[in-house]
Every structure is written in C-alpha cells, then in structure tokens.
Amino acid sequence: NAGVTQTPKFRILKIGQSMTLQCAQDMNHNYMYWYRQDPGMGLKLIYYSVGAGITDKGEVPNGYNVSRSTTEDFPLRLELAAPSQTSVYFCASRRAGGIPDASPLHFGNGTRLTVT
Amino acid sequence: AQKITQTQPGMFVQEKEAVTLDCTYDTSDPSYGLFWYKQPSSGEMIFLIYQGSYDQQNATEGRYSLNFQKARKSANLVISASQLGDSAMYFCAMREGLGGTSYGKLTFGQGTILTVHP
Question: B70: Cβ–Cβ under 8 A, 6 or more apart, which residues?
Fold first, then answer.
C-alpha cells in the first residue's frame, strides 16, 4: 500500500516562479487536504476537497490553487512564489466519515519548499 | 482565539517513565473529536489516538491513553513506559461538527517536542 504519495520531496524556487506540488492516494478516499507547516508550528489548512470536482478554501488559501479532476489526485499550484510560502507542505486524505465522524487523516511524507 | 493550545513547547522524560502532554481546546460545538499525531524527525505524521466528545470512556491505544476532561476542555496525551523512539513532535488536533458539517477538517495545535533520555 503506497497510501498518500507526494512529489517532489524537496524544491527550491526563486521568487516569482510557479510550481505544482503533486499528491496522489490509492486508498479510494473521497476527502483530500493540503496543509502547510511553518518551522516550529502546527499545520494550517490551505485547501480541501470532498470529491472529484469539488474543492474549497481552508484557513490560508492565498497564493495557492487546487484542482481535483480524479479521486486519486489533488495537486496544489503555487503561482508567483513568495518567501512567505517557504514551508513544508503536507497532503492528506481520509475515507468518508460516519456519524460521529471519527476517521483520521492519512498524511503523505511532505514536500519541503524553499523560496529565495 | 486559539482553538487548540499546547502550552509545553518541549518536554523531557526518562526512558521507561510515563509522560503527559497537555492539550486544551476551545469550541462551542457539542459534537467534536480530538486527535493526537506524532511527527518524528523524519517528518511524517502518524495518527496515534482519537477521543470523541460523547465517548464515555477515555481512549487507549497500547501505550497511549487520553486523559479527557470535558468540563475543563482538556485532552492530554499520556505515554506510558517511554521509549527512545517516542522522541518526536506531538500534535493535538480537533475536528468540530462530527455530524458531518466539518468535512473532516482538523485544526492543529503548535505541538510539543518530546525528548526521551536513556
């Protein structure tokens, strides 16, 4: 079981460049999420998706875009990279929850991004 | 206001001793869940334990247990018989709206770094 796979593992961008962080899951999970983790801090939600074709903003969406054309893939796009986007990015997924909704998030191993 | 507060930036414990990592939360939703995750130095996020607001008993998973005090809005993680491999960052997280309105989103605390000494 691969679980949640993120690529690349590391990336250095120059200010103003763009890139796409890839995320794929093979667990047939409907729900997917993108979080960022700044040094010494907790995770903050950027965007999430409840199924193919459906996405919504989280707590810190500015400077990012997402799409969800398939159940498996949830790429995160950075346009015009800024130093403030230097962070570790985590993709996560989970199965649809019952009631009560207790299913945990399954995380990828993260992408460490530096913008200089 | 912070929804999840972890007041201990760092904790130290001797191997084989027990340790408690604090977590307090703030919500007006009667239906919520608390999750704990472990993040070793390698960076991955590992789910440890879950406690629902309506659960009658404190959650346990092996050496991990949750000291859930609903009136005090605290959900402290207890690790018994600490091992060197327990050295990691630990995050408390909350999901509100367990009836399906949260879309599964988690709000995380800032984390506590645990160091286990031999």
Answer: B53
To the nearest whole angstrom, how far is the Cα of A43 from the nearest Cα of chain B?
6
pLDDT per residue rounded down to tens, chain A (116 residues): 679 999 999 999 999 999 999 999 999 999 999 999 998 889 999 999 999 999 999 999 999 999 999 999 999 999 899 999 999 999 999 987 676 678 899 999 999 999 99
CA angle A110, A115, A116 (to 5 degrees): 150
Handedness of CA B59, A91, A100, B34 (dihedral sign): positive
Residues of chain B with C-beta less than 8 angstroms from the C-beta of A57: none
Cβ separation of B95 and A101 shorter than 8 Å? Answer: yes
Which residue on chain A is closest to B90 by alpha carbon?
A: A42
